[in-house]
Automatic annotation (TrEMBL):
The lineage of its organism: Bacteria, Pseudomonadati, Pseudomonadota, Alphaproteobacteria, Rhodobacterales. GO terms for molecular function: catalytic activity; FAD binding. This is FAD/FMN-containing dehydrogenase. Its cofactor is FAD. Keywords: FAD, Flavoprotein. PANTHER family: BLL6224 PROTEIN, D-2-HYDROXYGLUTARATE DEHYDROGENASE, MITOCHONDRIAL. PROSITE patterns: FAD_PCMH. InterPro entries: FAD-bd_oxidored_4_C, FAD-bd_PCMH, FAD-bd_PCMH-like_sf, FAD-bd_PCMH_sub2, FAD-linked_Oxase-like_C, FAD-oxidored/transferase_4, Oxid_FAD_bind_N, Vanillyl_alc_oxidase_C-sub2. Pfam families: FAD-oxidase_C, FAD_binding_4. Belongs to the FAD-binding oxidoreductase/transferase type 4 family. GO terms for biological process: respiratory electron transport chain.
Amino acid sequence: MLNPADDAFLAGLARRFPPGTLAQPQPHHLTEPRGRHLGRAGAVALPRTTEEVARLVSACAEARVGIVPIGGGTGLVGGQVMGEGPLPLLVSLERMSRVRGLFPSENVILVEAGAILADVQAAAEAAGRMFPLWLASEGSCRIGGNLACNAGGTAVLRYGNARDLCLGLEAVLPDGSILHGLKRLRKDNTGYDLRNLLIGAEGTLGIITAASLKLVRPPAAEGAALLAVRDPAAALDLLGRAQRRLGPLVTGFELMHRQGLDFLAETMPGLRQPFAEPPVWTVLVDLGLAEGMDPAAELEALFAEGLEAGLVSDGIVAQSLAQRADFWAIRETIPEGNRRIGSIASHDISLPLGEIARFVEEAGAALARIGSLRVNCFGHLGDGNLHYNVFPAPGRRREDYEPLRAEITRCVHDLVHAAGGSISAEHGIGRLKVAELERYGDPARLAAMRAIKAALDPHGIMNPGAVLRAA
């Protein structure tokens, strides 16, 4: 049983730390972007060093007080806000944002967990390198949260998830001990891989305080094209042709439905759209090529091949880096258009590539039987991750559909599960999907997860109720 972070506990904690370490939580500490969850906390701790984090965790372990780690607060599944149970202590690493080391010849950067993703990208760029994790929230999300949730983004097809970009971690474990795993090694077969255990654990097994991250050399030339495709099956055929032509040089392959572009036209009429009449389905193909290769020529050849095969009906190839940026701005603004319309239910799902076309058809038909709904299906087609979001019919509000929200999500997730997919592709489980994980998760895997949690965090102080239901 956990105890609250009450006045007596906080007063004792304040005597043990420098002034300003404890503060009143601000609104951004207690809210999440979709407004589905509100958090509560006795205080927010703002440590400056890993040693201070360790002392905070030790104090909470001794007093049996829950800890909720918070990064940039951009997570979409409620993992950073705790609305029920004894008041926890929030721990924010926003003061721990230094670059501890940069090794261009090794393609490695060492950063503290509170570093904002965009700042890490900028530090890499200043050294002639690139940190290839790109997210819509990169201006505010923090590296610790990116790793804790195993963030994905738009370049997973080429570079992998956050997990694939991490070489080593420094972290504070639930007993207050410090895991000194901040190595720059590509190979280290010395026992259990605790790094990958902590990545994706959403703060339930410890607090990541610093990371050793992989950098890459920027491509010599980059380019993009928007291509109107017949349907998702045609898009997947085109992806295969692009990879056959260019192999790993395809950086991104994003699918967009017309509904998302229509939402942008409705909510942001000043945003310039590339097509006078938006296609029903569009793909954004992005390339990063070697020296001597011409992105526009490669994309025009792909367009011609797709046109001849009946996969593509129209297209625009970027003629400059500025136009490429404009294409990406359209894709990355779709979530904001969604937010302004107001979704009934949003689903972050992944599917085997061969199941995507059938899922899109079956899910659309199943939802039509539930009621009058609009669906915006878009996302990272290259790695099978779709954002399948459901919206009210024109003229109606999402509140009108509240009685149907659970049925809509169950419908979508049942179809995903039947197709061998995942109900969480890149956002994690948080608190929003705990029941869904229990419903769809493999029993043996869940039992192993609970055993690991009990072994490392026997008192259940680390992010109580996230990923696994609190005891």
